[in-house]
Amino acid sequence: MRRKREMKTLILYYSYGGNTKRIAEMIQREIGGDIARMDTVVPYDGDYDEVVNQGQREIAEGYCPELKPLNISWRDYDTIILGSPVWWYTFAPAMRSFLERADLTGKIVYPFTTNGGWLGHTLKDFEEACKGAIVKPGLDVRFDESMLRTSEKDIQAWINTIRR
Ligand SMILES: Cc1cc2nc3c(=O)[nH]c(=O)nc-3n(C[C@H](O)[C@H](O)[C@H](O)COP(=O)(O)O)c2cc1C
């Protein structure tokens, strides 16, 4: 008898300032699985306000920055946890670039975001952008700059909903 191929979980995130990375790593410590960070070919530089303004223009235009190659064996994963900071009430342009090209058909997706308190339509946008996937309820993690404001208990409760 051949054993059924074991499916795995991937945590894939974008993080400009490190908050989303921190939550992605917290999730991995709890549930295991693989973790990967997406990154833009052209880095965002300049001071924070310049990046905020650049982000506003990019979101308004629906701009999709080119991403560095991810080299992920998608077939190995049935569950994908997607994390992004909120940029102007939606996920960051890098996540948009990923979602425009990704084939998530049949995958189970758990989205999460970090933000400064204005989640906007980010989780709804994830639901719409993950075409063909089963999108589970998402997590909204609040930070004040780099200070975590959402309780670890609430984050843990969401992590406990992830199918293992
Ligand atoms: C370009 C830009 C736009 C942002 N827009 C929002 C927003 O619409 N709502 C909000 O609550 N926070 C907003 N923020 C704050 C970030 O979502 C928040 O600091 C997040 O935790 C950053 O995650 P990171 O450190 O992983 O990049 C914005 C930050 C940047 C840089």
Automatic annotation (TrEMBL):
Tell me the organism's taxonomic lineage: Bacteria, Bacillati, Actinomycetota, Coriobacteriia, Coriobacteriales
One GO molecular function term of this record is:
electron transfer activity
Coiled coil stretches, renumbered: none
Record InterPro entries: Flavodoxin/NO_synth, Flavodoxin_CS, Flavoprotein-like_sf
Using the record's annotation, list all stretches that form the Flavodoxin-like domain.
9-163
Q: Which PANTHER family match?
A: EXPORTED PROTEIN-RELATED, FLAVODOXIN-LIKE DOMAIN-CONTAINING PROTEIN
Protein name as it appears in the record: Flavodoxin
Q: Name one Pfam family in it.
A: Flavodoxin_4
